[in-house]
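Crash report, auto-generated. Payload:
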Amino acid sequence: MTAIDPLDMPVTEAGKGYWSGVGARLIRDPLTLICMSVIALLILSAIFAPWLGLGDPYKGSMIARLKPIGTPGHILGTDEQGRDMLARLIYGGRLTLFIGLTPVVLAFFIGGTLGIVAGYAGGWVNTLIMRTVDVFFAFPSVLLAIAISGALGAGIVNSLVSLTIVFIPPLTRVAEAVTSGVRALDYIDAARASGASALTVIRVHVIGNVLSPIFVYATSLTSVCMILAAGLSFLGIGVRPPEPEWGLMLNTLRSAIYVNPWLSALPGLMIFITSLCLNLLSDGVRSAMNVRD
Amino acid sequence: MSVTEPQTPPLPTPLADSAPDKGGPAQPLLIVRDLQKYFPVRGGILGGKKAVVQAVDGVSFEVRKGETLGIVGESGCGKSTTARLLIGLLEKDSGEIIYDGQDLGGALSLRDLRRGVQMVFQDSYASLNPRLTIEDSIAFGARIQGLSDPVGRARKLMDRVGLAPDRFAQRYPHEVSGGQRQRINIARALAMSPRLVVLDEAVSALDKSVEAQVLNLLADLRREFGLTYIFISHDLNVVRYISDRILVMYLGEVVEIAPVDDIWSSQAHPYTKSLFSAMPSMDPDNRTKEPPLAGDPPNPINPPPGCRFHTRCRFVDSVCKTKVPALRPLTAGGQHMAACHLHDLGSGHKLAGKDVLS
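Recovered output after restart:
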């Protein structure tokens, strides 16, 4: 070793864990932080909706129907039955976010596990899992969700189940692709050569290296899932009226589009903002999770 | 390449917790007999077996305790497949692997074999988990094998391979250079206290000055810990520097095996001969004017019958196309062995025994 050692400089990141490094990189990314705050705000306001002093989202009024945005007492106006839009939008976030996130979380665990197992095991296990998954790819996801929901019957639980089934195949496929890439690397061979069991190799060496692409992909699916869930409600096989839910509200306000177009666009705007922020957030998290930057 | 002057070596001290010697000094550490590995080539709608790649076909050799066996050959000749078979990363189709007198699959379990045999890979980056600190990577194997104090062991080995533990232990692989990563890989292999280390092109990807440092480190470690090496490389000079004996492979078969000085002075197999004459010379008057060997090696899916080298051999005769030459000593009881009809007077080759090679 020569006298000038490029590594003989102050150790900056040494001693810190991987996740604190991810956190440090996230803090330096304003766009991701903004998106994160918007999502946090939406989730918090949905959770604490009853304590925010809003009007009753179910209480209508025959005389105060379709009031425009900015009406005193109804800042965002009222819907076609005279219910306060602000209250309905915030209360609607509860169901929309729940239906938008739960299937992705479930599918993330189920699909991720299936994909990692398929990618690591290879051979007939892989063929079995991946060919089964391929069957689901034969149907467009919207059609599949509608078909399963339709078969199970309308209702929130059934839409959750059908959306979960819709999102398992793409997540399995992504997990399988990343895992079989990692599986071919020498450090997996080195770990196997040290006598570690398949489970230990997966736990220590595979999961950490495949999680971030799967996670990022799952994050990007949440916006799709919200839109699909809204679509199911819009079609009348998801949430039932009078529950406030953005997709359902979009459906019921559709008839008011000629009377008060800005008002009827509000639920769509909420869906748009949420999915945009989720997408930007997933991009930011992906670059923060990349060790080599 | 600077060669460290070998001082009177101190007695080798086996690595802590190294498995005890079973067969005594005369027992070769590793005996490989008729090792065979064919890879199926699948295709078609149903994934049926279409052909087989004869990656390793009937390879036999011995590695004595404390020696370094160099394995050379072109790309695709089965060197790496052999290495992976030896540490159990691939399952052999047939043949025997006998480690210190114990047969793998019989008296010896795969887990025990992995305790005694470790490997250093060529690609120093791909062979380290990017999400683990260097210390964790080195300690992993020792932890798996249930050895005492994995972290202390890792730090001690880091120090031994020339990486200050305080400065490097918490770093990640992408923060260090290629040579340093290869030192980490060596420490990682040694952390399980193996007796045999398979070095699969371990220095090939390094630049020349770093390569020399790592080679010297390997030579020192071997002396210090009484290790045995199988050193796979395509660089003959490197193999000569580190090896005691050299094994030459061609298309999945052993064509020649000999002590390094013997093979350096006279190559018995035409393939070895051309391999050596392909080495660039330092002397400008001694230029290589014509390619010593033309063409690519034949496809291992359908290797030529008889001697596999006959399609490219200058001395090819009719017998070479039909009869497979056996690997046999050039002189009775000698250490220099070659698989070529030229050295078998009874083979029917018209040039047999005529000494055409030298």
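Post-recovery validation: Residues 258 and 334 of chain B are 9 Å apart (CA to CA).
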